[in-house]
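User: My notes are a mess, but here's the protein and fe (ii) ion's SMILES. Can you give me a structure?
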Amino acid sequence: MSVQELSQFSPLQSLDEWEDDLLRRYPEPGTIAKEKSVEAFRNYEAPARDSVREFYKLNHQYQTFDFVMQKREEFLSFDRKVMTVWEAFDFLNQLVDDSDPDTDLSQFQHLLQTSEAVRADGHPDWMVLAGLMHDMGKVLCLFGEPQWAVVGDTFPVGCAYSDKIVYHEFFKNNPDFENEKYNTKFGIYAPNCGLRNVHMSWGHDEYIYAMMKDYLPEPALYMLRYHSFYAQHREGAYDHLMDEHDHKMFAWVRLFNSYDLYSKSPTPPDWNKLQPYYEELVNKYLPKTLRF
Ligand SMILES: [Fe+2]
Ligand SMILES: [Fe+2]
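Assistant: No problem, the inputs look usable. Here's the predicted complex:
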């Protein structure tokens, strides 16, 4: 593949561009009027950069039901690598932002800022651990997976794509959009069957959920699995697939989302001070090594 072709498949200069766009879409309620100038508010309102648009074009075109099945098969056997949690963070940090290495925090620093913000508010320690681990699935990029199969908003496959999903118009390029098996409101699912019976588009959320599912309590697993499912936790687009239990658990997902999106700060946390606490936390819940 030529360099030009490759860059067509990696429109984002860094994975952070997707998250910056989330902040434009969902600026923190309450702080805009109080702390941010009108000018800053306008910046949030600015249309997403072309790179984000190009990124969603690929994501929406290629995330089909069959693609999800194929990726589950390929990655959920976890036979690529065995690492301790700390080795895994070093590995993840190889994902560097080539657009502006001076101003962007490493992946680990984002995770630590998220977990520290959760901890500062006195939430249970397993939620702190969910904060620490939630983006670990981005290692998929280091296994050669394209950006559109690692990050981006997630959504159910096997049923109609909601028009509340960002850049919904690009789903017309997805073969499932024309497939009668998959393009009705419920598709292959029964009404209110519960999200545990629904297949989500493939990415870093499902991968880390599957890796952690034997170790963390259920609310933490919901946070990991659905943290990029903005069409539901922000827009309520898939109530028709959720059951009562999902609705209860989504209170946790929404709570978690505010720490994920709004904990970013230019000051990196002081890891030397925090290390003993996190070593104990990791030892409490996780095995010595994790399989990737
Ligand atoms: Fe994430
Ligand atoms: Fe995150």
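The beta strands are 82-83, 290-291.
User: Great, I'll file this with my notes.
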